[in-house]
Amino acid sequence: MNTLASIMIENGLPFEKGTLFTLNQTNTIVGREVHDWKPDLSIPNIYVSRRHLAIFLKDGRFYVKDLGSKHGTLLNNEPLTPNKEYELQDTDQISIANHHIQMIFLSSSMDQTADLGPNIPIMHTDQPYVLESINQELHIDNQILAFSEKEFICLELLLMKEDQFVDLSDIKEKVWPERIYEDQPAPDVSNEEINALIYRIRKKTKDLMTITNIRGKGFVLTFLP
């Protein structure tokens, strides 16, 4: 099972934005807890059905299925047909009950063979660390931190310019090259998407480094003492 897969809450009380739930079992039921029923991921919202949707692993890939909920489920703003399986891709948005709850599926790609690339050993003043590009991991201080594809690309850029300013435009071009079109000068990426990406990286590296936001301009990565 791909242990990198998780669900991040984008919007939905009582959870804070960016709350992560690891998908550590083959079938995860999302719903509302009642006195005789507790789902794997409980969302205390009156618009959420007791058994609202399932996210499950099949043949090495993750799928989502609405379980006949009262108020429905959207995948990237498209309504799901109840009890029909839909394959999930990294950063797909899952919305419950007309956007009352919004979640993002996070996973490294499992349906493509990764291109071989070199590990990038980088020497920090206090501690050497290695960016392992095949598995999208940071090896440092006897720790192995795993990242999604876009998290890893962004982190690599910030690390290569440690203690230096990294412009938003550089992050957009490196992380979202598929959104570069001939009729526009830069990738079509919102500030919310960038902030969510940086939030996830910060959460995973909070004991090692800080990523400072230069409001509206870019970011600076600095290791903690």
UniProtKB/TrEMBL annotation:
Keywords: DNA-binding, Transcription, Transcription regulation. CDD domains: FHA (cd00060). SUPFAM superfamilies: C-terminal effector domain of the bipartite response regulators, SMAD/FHA domain. InterPro entries: Cell_Proc_Reg/RNA_Proc (IPR050923), FHA_dom (IPR000253), OmpR/PhoB-type_DNA-bd (IPR001867), Sig_transdc_resp-reg_C-effctor (IPR016032), SMAD_FHA_dom_sf (IPR008984), WH-like_DNA-bd_sf (IPR036388). The keyword Lyase does not apply. Coiled coil: none annotated. Gene3D superfamilies: 2.60.200.20, Winged helix-like DNA-binding domain superfamily/Winged helix DNA-binding domain. Residues 28-80 form the FHA domain. Residues 120-223 bind DNA. Residues 120-223 form the OmpR/PhoB-type domain. PANTHER family: NUCLEAR INHIBITOR OF PROTEIN PHOSPHATASE-1. This is FHA domain-containing protein. It comes from Pontibacillus chungwhensis.
